[in-house]
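Researcher: Please predict.
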Amino acid sequence: MAVSIFDDKATTPDDTMLLSVLKEAQLLWNEAIHFVEQFGGITQGEWKFYTKAAGWTYVVKSNKRTMFYLIPKDAHLQATFVFGEKAVAAAEEANLPIDVLKNLRSAKAYVEGRSIAILVKDTEDLAVFKRLVTIKVEN
């Protein structure tokens, strides 16, 4: 099974499909998108199909810089960020949950940075997502 619940390359997800999968978590998805729009410079996200193993991913960019990826799951979503060393250092100071920091610290460092993925299932998770977006935007 693909990382995304949408794994058919021939069918680009639309709002109806997204709502049927996310259910109540559609509100979290909408709030996540609304939050990033307040920073300005955030272009409209777009659906990308990278591989059969990944499925469809919603990519949010600021100009040409990828800010994060949103991956629809069954009644929740996954947000994935890639943080450079400056952003990792800022995350250390950002009062993030211990498990998020532990995952970020243990992520393999690549040229483009360290990858961190969080599941967004409720408003507490959404608050963590917002802190990660802020760190990404500022660094």
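Model: The two ends are 34 Å apart (CA to CA).
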